[in-house]
Amino acid sequence: MPSARRSLDPDQPAERFAMELRDLHRAAGRPKQRILAAALSCSNATVSAILNGRRFPTWQQTEAFVTACGGDVSEWKLRWLRTDRALGDDATEHADRQPPAGGSLRPVSGREFYTAMLAEIDRARYRIMTTYIRLRPASYFIGFTDEQTGRAAAAYFDGLRAWSARPGRSVRRVIATPTPEMARWAQRLHRATLKQPNYRIRVIDWPLPTDAVNLALFDDTVAFLAFTNGTTQELSGFRIDEPAFVRGAIGHFEQLWAAGRDLSSPEDAEPDSA
Fold first, then answer.
1. DSSP characters for 203-247?
2. pLDDT, mean of residues 141-168
3. In this structure, are residues 204 and 172 in contact, taking their beta carbons and an 8 Å threshold?
4. pLDDT (tens digit, 9 = 90+) per residue, 46-61?
5. Does the pLDDT value for residue 194 go beyond 80?
6. Backbone conformation region of residue 211, classed left if phi is above 0, alpha if psi is from -120 to 50, else beta
7. Residue 183: count of CB within 10 angstroms of its CB
8. Is the CA virtual torsion 25, 30, 36, 37 positive or negative?
9. Residues 6+ apart with CB under 8 A from 12
10. By C-alpha distance, which of 212, 190, 227 is closest to 135?
11. How far is CA 124 from the centre of its chain?
12. CA 231 to chain centre
């Protein structure tokens, strides 16, 4: 590696990421630049640009670098995603999606809840995980909320399907089936997404006559909690960026996913009538 490197600014996301890559490289005993270039399938100049903060690497380049230096790929996936998000943010355009100063918890409700999640779909690069543990299907609420909220909710659910169609993306949804109506709705959604292998659904039994607190997780970095407001059935919740909370929410989702079951094939499903 070149002995002279420019100073980096930790307040700049790409440069902070480069500093962290330098630390990993140092801890690995400073593998030769040509070895890293071969691992990344790039030139020596590209490796130098990455380590000097002039070029933010793709995830594939980062993964190859981390593997060559013996790092934890899953940990670096989160670092890369957070940096990619930071670089993609425009402070003015996305000001309404930022957590309040000094905190990582932001309340959202009604139409804003759906628009905030739709914005996260647009920013997501890796995976989205959601739960839908309610007593009535989404179509019911879209039909009875105000027009703007209904449109926002429909756009969010459509956005999940469209996003999952892109290569390298994954959507997993856990849906409760406490009633025949919910079972039919889950089957309809399953049939509608059969040609999208990156969009997977599992169903779980839900014996309680009440909605649960629901989750939406984006790229392992942002979580939404959704609460149902009593008889009004309006959604209110929180957008949370705290890494420790998001990790805990992921663990909870994985338990629900493991407890769920895959849906039957279309020919085995109940008819849609009723």
1. EE---SSSPPPEEEEETTTEEEEEEEEGGGTEEEEEEE--HHHHH
2. 81
3. no
4. 898 899 888 888 888 8
5. yes
6. beta
7. 18
8. positive
9. 53
10. 212
11. 6
12. 30
* R_g over Cα of the chain: 22
Q: Which residues contact 144 (CB under 8 A, 6 or more apart)?
A: 233
Average pLDDT, the chain: 82
- Where b means 16+ CB within 10 Å and e means fewer, 119-153 reads bbbebbebbbbbbbbbbbbbeebbeebeeebbebb
Mean pLDDT of 14-23: 92
Global pTM?
A: 0.63
Which among 68, 72, 84, 85 is positioned nearest to 33, based on CA atoms?
68
The 3-state DSSP class for residue 260 equals coil
What is d(CA 162, CA 164) in angstroms, rounded to the nearest whole number?
Answer: 6
Euclidean distance between CA atoms 233 and 211, whole angstroms = 10
Residue 62 tokens read as: 């980062």
Q: Which residue has the tokens 């070149």?
A: 2
